[in-house]
Every structure is written in structure tokens, then in C-alpha cells.
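Exercise 7b. C-alpha cells:
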């Protein structure tokens, strides 16, 4: 009886434990199923990627060639004294602009004035002797012809005396002219208009014609020239464009960011430097605002040509992948497509596309690292400050984007910006519209 009563009490306890376990299991199952359904629903909703876009435009595209150069004065004159003497007067201020013919300095003229007076006196004396000899010669001729009272030898001797005195007078006249010339050298004048540098000799010092150092230096700054170099392979193209007309040239600052002046290409040198494989070119600038100075380092941008109605995109839209250059095209349904393009040339923040896209399409310029084919995007129009700029105008030049890297248009790896160093690298002379994208490597 005792065993049966204990067994009866254990059976209800076991039932209670089993019931509680089943209730807990059902509760956990319901919680798990409830949390799984919203997660699956959220995963099925496509997430839009925030990107910046810009339209593909058709416009004139300038092609530039860049070279390093330095400014040279149009004329540089080192003035030295042509006579010996004491510098008595300086009639210029350092840094002053002088005109051709202005008197700049005076050397003591008194010794040369004395030499001139002596030469003139000698000339006057010899001229009197010549006149006397000429009168005697005429008398001898008359006597010989009328009466024969004088011999022919005496007439000939007098004729020789006249000729000798004529030579002496001519020599005296040359000495007078030389004395006048030396006297004029005492007044040093500007042989060319320009700007005077620092004074190198002070008044009171003795100057000599044999001095090595000049008294002052005059440089013509308006106009002024620039000498720059280009690779020898580009010279035939430049010469061809020069035959069509004058080429424009822009001078930029040392860091190649600020435009300083605009000018014209003057000429190409007649030989190529074998050491560097470059040719020298000379550009001409009016320099009316005096922003260019001799020996100043500049970056020269030569406008080779302007291609009409070119298909242009911002350089930031170009990406590098294993199969070459590509861009992301935004479709009307707000999805993107990676499309291969052929780049004709790139300049600054702009790139000319030879094939692959049309002017009525839109490209992604920022946010490409989150994209792959078919990605949904939310577009924002590129602002004017971040957009593609046309280089060659006045103002600032935007630095180039980074170096290209490996990227997969299907989205397996992050894309890299387009390399601006590919600017003007063509598979032939400019104007062919071809581009060699090369083979990517890690």
C-alpha cells in the first residue's frame, strides 16, 4: 500500500515537468519564427547606394602639351664704359624703366674735350698749308703753259706736295672724328628700352674700357620670352600645327596650379638635345602687367588643337579594370551598368571618349567603390565646384586623381580612380582618336 501511494504521487509530478518543458519549447519556437520573418523581408528589399553623377556632354575639347621652361628677357644689355675716366654722374634710379636714348651716366669729359680741341687745331693748320700748296701748284702750271719759265719737274713736285697735304688733312679730320666719338662715349645712353637692375659702380670711381664687370644691366621685360622643352616625338606635330596658324601658350606657376600669363609660340629650335631627347621652343608674352621675370621657372601649356564636338566626361568617372577602362552608366530604372570605353585623351579634369558612351547618358563620378552591375543607386548631381573643368582658362588647376588599380566591373573588388598621367597618351599622333589601355598587372 505504501509503494502504490508513492507511485501515485510521482506520476502527477512527472506530468507537470513534461508540460512545463513543452510550453517552454513552444514559446521559444514562436519567438524564433517571429524574428526570422522580418529579417528575411528586409533582406529582400534592395538598398540604394548614394552616388554622384554627371552627364556626358558634347563640347569642344582642347588638347595641350606641357613642358618645363624658364623666362628669358627679350633683350639683355650689360653696359660697360668704352673710354677710361672717372664716373662723375649717375642719372638713373635702381629698378627704373628707361627708354632708348636716355642718358644714364656721365664720365668726366674734360680730357676728351682737350683732345678734340688739339685735333681741330692740327686740322686747321694743315688745311692752311694745303691751300698754300694748291695756289703754288696753280701758278707753276700757268708759268709752264704761258712762258715756259718753269720746268715740268717743278710742276710735278708741287703736285705731289699738294697730294701729301691732302692726305694729312684727311688724317687730321679722322683724328677730330675720333676725339668727338670718345667725347660722346663719356655720356652713356640706354641702347634699348627696359628695366635697370642694381647699380654696380658708384659715382667717383674710375672706370675703364677693359673692365670685366659692367656698370649696370638693362633687361627688356615687355615683351618677354620663355624657353621650354618638349619631347622630340611631339615636335613634328607642333610644326604641323604651326603651319596652320599661331599656337597659343599659357604660363603656369611652379606648382602648375595658377595661370600667370598667356602668349604665343614664336619658334622651334633648329636642333634636338641628344642628351635629353628634347627640343627647345620659344614663346612670346607681352607681359603688360610685369608678372614674368627673367630666370623665373614656369610650366608651359601649349594649346595644340581644339577638337570640335567631342564626347567629354569628368576624369573622375573613369575606372581601371582587368579589361581596360570602364565607367558606370546610370540607367532610367536607377540601376547601374559597367561599360567599357575607349579614351582618346585626357586633360585636367576632363577626358575625351572615343567610343563606348553617348552624350545622352549619365555616368557615376563618386561612390563607384560600392557599385556592381545592377546596383540600385540614389543619384546626386555633381556640383559646379566638383565638376569637370576645362583646363587652359585662367585660375586654378585641380590636382590629378590617384593612380589606377585593379577593379572588376562586376563588383568583385573596389574600383580605383582614373590615372591622369594618361593625359595626351595616344596610340599615334593627336587626332587619330585611338587609345592603348595596356594590360593591367598587380
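Sequence design result:
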Amino acid at each position: 500500500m505504501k509503494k502504490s501511494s508513492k507511485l501515485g504521487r510521482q506520476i502527477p509530478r512527472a506530468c507537470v515537468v513534461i508540460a512545463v518543458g513543452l510550453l517552454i519549447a513552444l514559446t521559444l519556437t514562436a519567438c524564433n519564427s517571429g524574428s526570422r520573418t522580418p529579417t528575411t523581408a528586409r533582406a529582400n528589399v534592395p538598398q540604394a547606394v548614394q552616388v554622384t553623377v554627371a552627364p556626358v556632354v558634347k563640347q569642344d575639347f582642347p588638347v595641350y602639351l606641357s613642358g618645363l621652361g624658364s623666362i628669358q628677357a627679350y633683350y639683355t644689355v650689360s653696359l660697360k664704359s668704352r673710354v677710361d675716366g672717372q664716373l662723375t654722374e649717375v642719372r638713373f634710379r635702381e629698378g627704373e624703366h628707361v627708354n632708348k636714348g636716355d642718358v644714364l651716366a656721365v664720365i668726366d669729359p674734360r680730357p676728351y674735350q682737350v683732345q678734340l680741341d688739339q685735333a681741330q687745331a692740327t686740322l686747321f693748320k694743315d688745311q692752311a698749308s694745303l691751300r698754300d700748296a694748291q695756289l703754288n701748284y696753280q701758278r707753276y702750271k700757268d708759268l709752264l703753259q704761258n712762258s715756259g719759265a718753269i720746268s715740268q719737274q717743278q710742276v710735278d713736285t708741287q703736285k705731289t706736295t699738294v697730294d701729301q697735304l691732302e692726305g694729312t688733312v684727311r688724317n687730321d679730320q679722322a683724328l677730330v672724328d675720333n676725339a668727338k666719338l670718345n667725347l660722346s662715349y663719356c655720356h652713356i645712353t640706354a641702347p634699348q628700352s627696359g628695366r635697370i637692375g642694381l647699380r654696380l659702380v658708384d659715382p667717383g670711381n674710375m672706370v675703364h674700357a677693359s673692365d670685366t664687370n659692367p656698370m649696370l644691366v638693362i633687361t627688356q621685360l615687355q615683351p618677354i620670352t620663355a624657353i621650354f622643352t618638349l619631347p622630340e616625338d611631339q615636335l613634328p606635330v607642333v610644326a604641323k600645327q604651326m603651319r596652320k596658324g599661331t599656337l597659343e601658350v599659357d604660363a603656369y606657376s611652379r606648382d602648375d596650379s595658377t595661370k600667370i600669363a598667356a602668349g604665343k609660340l614664336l619658334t622651334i629650335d633648329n636642333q634636338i638635345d641628344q642628351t635629353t631627347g628634347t627640343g627647345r621652343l620659344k614663346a612670346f608674352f607681352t607681359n603688360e602687367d610685369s608678372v614674368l621675370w627673367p630666370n623665373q621657372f614656369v610650366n608651359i601649356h601649349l594649346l595644340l588643337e581644339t577638337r570640335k564636338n567631342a564626347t567629354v566626361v569628368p576624369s573622375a568617372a573613369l575606372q581601371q579594370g582587368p579589361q581596360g577602362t570602364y565607367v558606370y552608366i546610370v540607367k532610367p530604372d536607377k540601376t547601374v551598368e559597367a561599360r567599357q570605353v575607349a579614351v582618346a585623351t585626357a586633360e585636367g579634369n576632363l577626358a575625351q571618349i572615343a567610343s563606348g558612351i553617348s552624350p545622352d547618358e549619365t555616368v557615376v563620378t563618386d561612390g563607384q567603390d560600392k557599385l556592381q552591375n545592377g546596383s540600385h543607386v540614389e543619384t546626386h548631381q555633381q556640383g559646379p565646384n566638383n565638376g569637370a573643368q576645362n583646363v587652359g582658362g585662367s585660375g586654378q588647376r585641380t590636382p590629378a586623381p590617384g593612380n589606377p588599380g585593379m577593379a572588376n566591373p562586376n563588383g568583385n573588388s573596389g574600383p580605383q580612380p582614373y590615372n591622369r598621367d594618361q593625359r595626351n597618351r595616344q596610340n599615334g599622333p593627336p587626332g587619330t582618336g585611338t587609345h592603348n589601355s595596356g594590360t593591367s598587372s598587380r
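Instructor comment: The first strand starts at residue 49 and ends at 55. Helices lie at 2-44, 110-146, 152-185, 235-244.
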